[in-house]
Amino acid sequence: MHNQITNMFFMFSKCSSLINIDLSNFNTNNVTNMRSMFYECSSLININLSNFNTNNVTNMACMFYECSSLTNIDLSNFNTNNVIDMGYMFNKCSSLINIDLSNFNTNNVTYMDGMFYGCSSLNNLIYLILIQIMLLKCLVCLMDVQN
């Protein structure tokens, strides 16, 4: 039955006492919506999403919104080819220092507003590369509008 789940919207939302979570054995093969999955999990320090299958996910907006105790997150295994919305994905993750988005594909993303807003501790190079890609996409959009 659990392999038929398509929506994880608000699944762990506001679990403010949650400190550690290992979801490496979660079956996410059919999930399309991970919006606000860990929304305001303000005490979350350790999260293992190493085997998450995100091939079908289209919405990751606010996924880690205000996970203010999270310092490191490895999302290098995330397949984001079908994601359209990443708005506010890491918003207010104020303790986040390192994040690995090395395999993120943002070609289909149309909404990235506030994605890293309030991530005042973030200093990872991979983050900077993603920002450059986002700025280039915005520049191309502006050029298309002007033409």
Helix and strand topology:
Layout: E1 20-22, E2 46-48, E3 72-74, E4 98-100, H1 125-146
Parallel strand pairs: 1-2, 3-4
Explain what this protein looks like in three dimensions.
By secondary structure, this protein is mostly loops. It has one domain (1-147). 15% of the residues lie in helices and 8% in strands. It has one helix and four strands; from the N terminus they run ββββα. It has one helix at residues 125-146, and strands at 20-22, 46-48, 72-74, 98-100. A two-stranded parallel sheet has the order 1-2. The protein is globular.
Descriptive key words:
147 residues; little secondary structure; two-stranded parallel sheet; 4 strands; 15% helix; 8% strand; globular
Query: What is the helix tally?
Result: 1
Strand order of the largest sheet: 1-2
Helix and strand string, N-terminal first? EEEEH
Query: Rg from C-alpha positions?
Result: 15 Å
Helix percent reads 10-25%
How many domains comprise the coordinates? 1
Shape label: globular
